[in-house]
Write a structure and sequence with these properties.
Length: 424
Amino acid sequence: MSSFFAEEGGDWFDQPTPGADAGTVEAAAPAPTAPSAGIATVVVDRDPGVQADLAAKLGGVPTFASIEELAARLTGTPVVAVLGPTCSHPEILVASERVLSYHAELGTVLVADELSTSLLQQALRSGVKDVLASPVDPGELLATIERVGATLQPIAGAAPTTNTPAFDEFGEGAEPGKVITVFSTKGGAGKSVIAANLAVSLAQRSERPVCLIDADLQFGDIAVMLKLAPQHTIVDAVASQDRLDEAMLANLLTVHEASGLLVLPAPLEPAFADQIGAGEMVQVVEVLRRFCSHVVIDTPAYFNDVVLGLIEISDDVLLVAGMDIPNIKNVKIGLQTLRLLNTPMEKLRLVLNRANSKVKLDVSEVERTLQVTAESLIPSDVVVPQSVNKGVPVVLSAPRSGVAKSIEELAGTFIAVEGKRKRR
Ligand SMILES: Nc1ncnc2c1ncn2[C@@H]1O[C@H](COP(=O)(O)OP(=O)(O)O)[C@@H](O)[C@H]1O
Ligand SMILES: [Mg+2]
């Protein structure tokens, strides 16, 4: 990855623009892709303002909130990604290195707010091919893109022509994603743990983006469980309702860097929950499923309009029950309610959490009481509260544990393991 610099003899720092007529390029409002090289170009930055600014300098190229989001849409033909200043963050550089390690067709140019020796070193070690200081000159940027583009190879199977789409923008034409709602009529049953771990596992397996929505609008804790510091929440998505499309929504999602999962967190203040109606929530999910392979939804422990709306549009509803009598009693009531509401029973799948022999409640007894067969049994294990407190899901922090294995098995019923994406 660092060989590019070895070949270039370190002249990246003073930015030569070999063979590029920067003046002409600048004057003639650049085309959407770096012109002569015919290389597709995109902008990656968390900040929509920065995205828009850089994209405008390149004549309006597509933008992505994260490199993981871009990676999910790459098709094998060369792409140069201009990484905006928020990508200078060490954690993002690590994530970008991981993506670059399995996408030889992708080259990156970092535009940094401030150039320092340590940032340069770090960026170069992470596989970034060039670093420019912000505000960047459009001509210089285009010349750099051309130079980086010339080093990229299409990966096997991709036709190296400019007619081949370099990436599948928002998965157009793809099948709508599956909606999986994780529900229980009992608090503390393990909904959030299961939703978060299932979503992370699916994000690792899927070629397309996977999104997790925290629809526990008052007390959602997905952001805490995944140690995220979200810039936007469901409140922003609902506020943008009139203009809501894939690009807008993609900008509001927070990326779980370790897995590439996209997260739409619950409002930061419980009081905002009232602002969100079932119709609005359903619309958000419908937009997400246009470009995600799976949309996983965590819910509160009671029925309300939002929950009922979400259950109605779900392909699968994972009904979570803990292995104790109050849990089973409440889940039984929940099931009766769902039957009364004419919810198709085929989409209900029972997940028994903390299903160890030690709890002295027999699985078959529970199944008989609920008149549903358990699809998934998740053991009780101290690794779960440990992982919750660390903010790292069990499937990542304790992948060999029985809990992680059960969740991976559950994820495998949605995306078989053959499709598993390479992750380090
Ligand atoms: N299989 C399990 N083994 C041990 N502890 C668990 C298990 N599942 C959940 N927990 C613990 O129970 C707590 C409640 O789980 P959570 O997913 O937040 O429930 P819910 O979202 O249904 O209210 C979590 O903090 C976690 O530590
Ligand atoms: Mg919860």
